[in-house]
Amino acid sequence: MKKQKFVLFCAVIIFSISSFAQRLPELAVPENYVLTFTPDFFTNTFKGEETLKLNVLKPTTQIVLNSVDIEFNEINISSGGQTQAAKVTEDKEKQMVTLQVEKELAPGPASLQIKYKGLLNDELRGFYIGRDELGNKYAVTQFESTDARRAFPSFDEPAYKATFDVTVVADKDLAVISNTKTLTDTPDASAAKHAVHFATTPRMSSYLLAIVVGHFESIAGSADGIPIRVWTTPGKKELGRFALESAEHILPYYDHYFGIKYPYGKLDLVGLPDFSAGAMENTACITFREVDLMLNSQRASLEAKKRVASVVAHEMAHQWFGDLVTMQWWDDVWLNEGFATWMSSKPLEAWHTEWHFEVDDVVESALSLNTDSLENTRPIHQEAETPDQIEELFDGIAYGKAAAVLRMLETYMGPDKFQAGVNAYLKKHSYANATASDFWTALTQASNKPIDKIMPTFVQQAGVPLVTVEAKCTGGADKVDLEQQRYFYNRSMFTAKNQDELWMIPVCLKTGESNNADAKCELLSEKEQRTSLKGCSPWVFANRGAYGYYRSGYTPEALRAISKDMEARLTPAERVLLLGDAWSSLQVGRITISDYLAFAEGFQHEHDSMVIQQFAIPLEYLADKVVEDKDREAFRGWIRHLFAQTAQEVGWDAKPGESDNQMLLRAQLMHVLGATARDPQVLAKAKELAIAALTQPGSVSSEMMTPALEVAAVNGDQALYDKVMARWKQSPDPEQRSLYSQTLVRFTDPKLVERTLNFLISSDVRSQDVTLLLARELRNHDAQKQVWDFVQQHWQDIQNVGGAFSNGRLVAASAAFCSVDMRDSEVSFFATHKTSSPRTQKQSLERMNYCIDLKSQQRSALTSWLEQHHESAGE
Fold first, then answer.
1. CA-to-CA distance for 265 and 558, rounded, in angstroms?
2. Cα–Cα dist 750/782, whole Å
3. What is the rounded end-to-end Cα distance, in angstroms, of the chain?
4. What is the reported pTM?
5. Are 618 and 579 in contact (CB under 8 A)?
6. Does 513 participate in catalysis according to the annotation?
7. Given this model, what pLDDT does residue 5 score?
């Protein structure tokens, strides 16, 4: 009965999918794959054997599967007591093969028996080859989103869930890891190899299958009766200790929150030296880039610990939301990624309240608001058919915007009702697939609120709303006028009168006289609405708690009023959001640069490290891109003046018993005063600390080491460069190697920049890091043109060493250009060089144009403002 119900369910969902483009035809559904893989590290190939049990849905003489780079040796199809040899026809463009037989297959059970050969490629996708620092090869899978077909012929679409029985035959000294527990581990007759057979997996999508083969070692722990192991290449296992501790805290939290115990029996976390993404949520066998899993917990910075814990929490959340319940098609990938992004903060907040993940969440939302303010943004729910289109869906909209909308809805519904809706959704769709509509229906039923009306306005239409708030004191009460419109960075589109977008926005207000507990909340469902607040206040803040996914618009007078006491009246999260709101108003001319800088002066007594970190971003933008060359030193002087008192209070030396925030604040001040304001005293201190850190590791705190190296590199000479390079080569710690490599791309001396560029495309740098570091170098304002010239001249070399996913990062990094010449050069180059990220290229062009526009609109006004404020500008 259970089996029959599943077959019917699959038939319904598959028949509901259109069969155009690169989707499989509606002929059959899989039930079980029996797979045997025999990797050969000498030839970088593997042998595969597959028995696929399936159910034929209608009479047919062919079965169509996804397949890429598979060499078929033998294929038979058995059905109704007959076995027929099948003829193979390959469609490389659609990444499909048609298996044709002479006699018609009747509806019902059938099986395929396939013997084939595949490639262990060097593209960091499918079944691929990597190497550790000792030169040992390993083989690992990375199937999301459409690359399981590179390892075995399959129904490689998420709705085609099935079970898997996996066996791997490997050299006897190699560890083998997969999604389930090992059932048998048997040496072959020669004792040179062993065959590892794993338990049958739960029903899952093909992209979640995982296989890891190589020299790996592990440390072990457990939580809620589930064994947990962290795997690394030899000599590094103790660097996985913090990740193991994180997982042991996270798993019980999720067990409780989801109301469903972790369903997979074991959990493996595997750190890989060569890995394209940050991490991948393969069912019960999560794979990671080393820097996102491994660190020295005695020396690691707080930022590094938060990153590792967050990535582990994100991927573990997927075990329920994405693996147990999977989106029906990739157009709803946000159900996976947005939910996991939103969820990952919860167990960590419970574990380390002092880490203040509520501010990190708002910082991430701010990034999404920026992307969503572009003309070339996209709705959360986006149609996609081809592998390239699907790959583009893994962006800030799927992760950050979707998470921000969920955070807003949780606040509107109340945490308990939101949790009840999530639990109902998971229980109803366990081991199956679901759609966005299924999700918000569950939330609607749990809350009795119009979630099914609110969600489509944020999920199915692109862009971000701007909520303008104006308050007037009338009769002893504030009358507040709210107005919504779509926000664009494009000034002409922003001011257009023909905007027809309308959102249903949960808006919460607070005043200078109120606190979060007595804020007023209501649903803004019209273009214009009026509400009232008790009493009269000098200002009204439009996004209490910073939970809402919208920009807020204020008059210049209101911004100045808020800035006078915002550290006392607004939370750090609210102040971060307000910074973005003010900047967005400047972008479209709602306020002038004078208004913005007057508002900015309200942050001169700011003592929250995260707020300072976010405040530094627009200051650096103005310093690098907008201010005239002749005014740059004056602007830097104003920044020095702005932070002088706080820097004096904090000092450059750690004090006994100080908080994490105090340590991080010191680091942020060094960054903004050194890298942006170029304060001579700070530059000298940074060089002193950098040399100490490089000469005697451990002598400088992890929090100060990062900004010290970064700032010292700005004016760094060859001697400093050589010390950084030497440490990069010597350090076995992935976090430290990442820090050193990021320091190398901060140097500005043209000779050292050239040296770095040639180094990045050499065999010394892993392919996963090439374009990541080149992109950071491309954002280095002082070296930008030199780097861009190099990228153009060596484009093919970069593609060769960077792998299949390489060019998207460079396309995105070109958004940092802010001159007509650089923009035109980028447009001309990509007109003749194919990119796999066309939307990203359009977005980068937009960002360049908006920077050029802002510079033309505000540069002379900035000059005038600096002349009027020459004393605070340090003159």
1. 56
2. 9
3. 83
4. 0.94
5. yes
6. no
7. 35
